Amino acid sequence: MKSILAEVVTIGDEILYGQITDTNTQWMSAELSKIGIRTVRKSSVGDTEAQILQILKEAESRADVILITGGLGPTKDDITKKTLANYFGVGMVLNKDALANVTEIFARRGFELTELNRQQAMVPTNCTCIVNKAGTAPGMWFEHKGKIFVSMPGVPYEMKWIMENWVLEHLSAFFQTPAIYHKNIRTIDIGESFLAEQIEAWEDALPSHIRLAYLPSMGQVKLRLTATGASINELEAEVQQQVNTLLTIIPEYVYGYDEDELEIVIGKLLLDQNLTLSTAESCTGGYVAHTITKVPGSSRYYTGGMITYSNAMKINQLDVIPDTLTQHGAVSEETVRQMAENVRKKLNTDIGISTSGIAGPDGGTPDKPVGTIWIAYADKDKTVTKKLQLFRDRLLNIQYTTLAVLNLLRQNLPASVKTVTP
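== CinA-like protein ==
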């Protein structure tokens, strides 16, 4: 079955100037994938007719579906409709349904319909007009030499309304598309190159219709398996077999799948065993607690925490022994151990975790440079500590430390709890 390829073209100087963020392309690509259409390129172009015509010509040579957003407003800089008419060599016509829609919207809001707004109902003569119930600018569907062009507003909620209520259904009817199935395996605490070495034989043995992509981010690597074929159910079963094999190779690094975030996975694991958690933070300044409590329902397992930024707070609130701070300093294994153990006892929780370090950009010494961080995990049976040597960027150090201490928590939960199922 022939693969159906798509290209997304975003139009607008504001995108190129960095004044707005293009979120449309990501959403559209995900929705196209669900109906078996693979996005192969994203292009952005300013409000210049010659440039738009050129990018449309290039997109037509590459893709079966060209989705266009932006440039459909009522002002002079919005030239997409006229440019499309020029591209196809046609004129413009007033669409009665589009005019009725914009008239009704203005009447509902108590505004008079101006001639400028009336012009929004003008569309190229060769298009199928898509009435936009979420706004005043209609969408436009063009069938040209066996390919589909669709022009939509750049406003995300308007684009989504047109896609969900018209475009996706009509694309599915127009093309006979293969099934596409994605599965994301989330790994942590192993770099991309080291991970690739460990799973090289597994990757080389993947069948030709299942492709692997490495998607690294801070402290994590997401492995995305993409399978194409005739049956979505068969693809899902095949991919699951591959995931099961992968789990026998790198079980310690896999913490979740698809949209799982580490804090969500940890919350589920704690709930499964009816375990409670508390936090003691220094260098992260409450970011660990913030990350944990982003999860709805976290109050069922997270009791609270202490931000003991100064040595005096560590002594007075967490009962860290003064001699420990004098002999070893706040950034030390000894201090972070006591922080985790004592917050667990003080807040009467099953588990305590802690952080202390030099986040930067200043404050480092030859023995403890910026980025030196200690983290700890404590329960009634054991205390585990870990030293991190991170970066000179303060925010990055805070974020990475939070990720690392949550992963230390995951790693030290009972073995039966850590088991991750797809």
